Every structure is written in C-alpha cells, then in structure tokens.
Amino acid sequence: MSTWRAVSLMFRVPRRGRGFWFSLAIDVLWPLLAIFTRLRFRGGEKLPKSGGVLLASNHLSYADPVTVTAFALAAGRIPRYLAKADLWRVPVVGKVLAGGGHIPVERGTAQARHAYRGAVDAVRRGECVIFFPEAGFSDDADNWPSARVKNGVARVALETGAPVIPVVNWGTHAVLPATAKFPRVFPRRTVNIVTGDPVDLSDLTSTDRQSLDEATKRVMRAITELLADLRGERPPSR
What we know:
- The chain is α/β, with parallel strands linked by helices.
- The protein has one domain (3-78, 125-231).
- The chain is built from 8 helices and 7 strands; from the N terminus they run ααββαβαβαβαβαβα.
- It has helices at residues 3-9, 20-36, 64-74, 93-99, 112-124, 152-160, 172-175, 209-231, and strands spanning 37-42, 53-57, 79-84, 103-105, 128-131, 164-170, 189-195.
- Strands 1-7-6-2-5-3-4 form a 7-stranded mixed beta sheet, with helices on both faces.
- α2 crosses α4 (93-99) and α6 packs across α8 (209-231).
- Residues 53-172 form the Phospholipid/glycerol acyltransferase domain.
- One of its GO terms (molecular function) is 1-acylglycerol-3-phosphate O-acyltransferase activity.
- Keywords: Acyltransferase, Membrane, Transferase, Transmembrane, Transmembrane helix.
- The chain crosses the membrane at residues 20-39.
- InterPro entries: Plipid/glycerol_acylTrfase (IPR002123).
C-alpha cells in the first residue's frame, strides 16, 4: 500500500462511535504509520461488516494495537480492546481508552471477571472486540506465538457464539521492539497484517475447562499457521 493510498484511506474509515480522544489518536497516529512504514493489509474482507466479532492477534510490540486498529478500521470496523486497568490512570492514554469504549482489566484481582463480562456485553451489542491471547509479548526468541496463553477469547466466543478471526502482525517488532524507548523509523520497515478464516468452534457447546482449552488451542494454531504462511517458515513444534 502506497503512502498516499494509506493516508487517503484514513478519510474513508468509520468515524461514528470512536469517541473524541480515540478518534484524535487515530488521526494523529495513522499518517505517521503510513509515512514511516510500508503497510500491507490482507484479508480484511473476512471481517463481517456488522454484528459481534472477535479478533485474536499475536503480540510482538507496543505498536500492535495501532496497526490492528488501522487494519480493523480499513475493513470497516471500530475495534474495542481489553487492556490492563493501569493504563486508564495514565494521562492522555486513559482518555483515549475511556473515550474509545475499551475494556479495563484488573489483572490478578477478583475484578478481572468484570472485563470478561464487558467483552461479552460488547460482542452482544455487535462490537468488534480484539484480544491478544498471549496477554503480553511473545516470549519466543524467534517471535512465534507463545505457549503461554489465556482462555479469554475462547470463553467469550463460546458464550456468545461470535466468530473468532485470527490476525497476525509481522514487522511491528522491527518498528518498535519491546525493549526500545522510541520507534525505529529508518530504514522504513514493512508491516504486514493478515487475517485468516474464522476458527471453527462449532462442535464446542459449553464453557467447561476442556472446551475452553480446546478452543484456545484451535485459535492459537490458526494464528501460528497464518504467521508461518506469511513468514514462509515452519513454526516450532510444541
């Protein structure tokens, strides 16, 4: 996608329902993303244009929410995220998250279940909710999805029946490595975001632990296979 096309696309994506601060953040960051990276989007047509849907993405960088947001908007959906509640207390960031209708997660506390209910309610309202099932950056030395994952997206999917669309980012870790304080804008990096077909969970009809683990395994397998295809490499066996 050329820089001009990426910038011009910004004026055609959904705006209603974004909230002032979330919308402002998008308007500021999108042109920077288009100028300093080569954006490559593929598979946006696989996102339903309406109705509740879950996107499950790998996680490599603090830049991932920016790139996945751009991808979802380009596909005609306004994304809602689950994020640690501490971010709501950060100046500016908290306003962006609150105004955008995102969902705080009180990690390690009994209140964490409220985030799950918030995600279920959002999906039932017809929202597009994005999960990073690894609940943190990949701990794999070669940036394959972690073996350490959470069952949150599976739980919401099995309760609501909403489709789960696998998403992969590749290149964000070169733009903004997990240990870097500032983005690396030169040389200009390519960032790919690709979606696959919905993960088939139709045979799983309950939210018992076995079903949740199986659903999570299928989601992560879909993400890993999608990333392997994008990278042209074989993932580790585990």
